[in-house]
Amino acid sequence: MAFDPASLKFDAAGLIPAIAQDTGGAVLMMAWMNADAVARTLDSGRVTYWSRSRQAFWVKGESSGHVQRLIEMRVDCDRDCLLLLVEQEGPACHTNRRSCFYTAIRDGEEVEIMAPVAG
Prior knowledge:
Blueprint lengths: L15 E7 L4 E7 L1 H10 L3 E4 L4 E4 L8 E8 L6 E7 L14 E4 L2 E4 L7
Parallel strand pairs: 1-6
Antiparallel strand pairs: 1-2, 3-4, 5-6, 7-8
């Protein structure tokens, strides 16, 4: 069966959450995609998100060089969330960390568990 991005369940703004995970299993980040961003990602192999703040497409790594290459796109059972298995070059987070999930809650306290990559 051929995949049609229109078969996904987008929110009222036409967006769907997309979780990027590296091939080793680490969750890197979450961002938003619209149907065109999904199609562009599948066509190019370069992960393309939709920037809600800029109201524009955002090809991951276009300005930073921290490129995400799509290995596989997966759709969840409700078709309202995507999992992107990616090959990540450099940090995924704009804070220069490997992952955007660098703060843990431990014993009621926020603990930074990942430092920025030395650059």
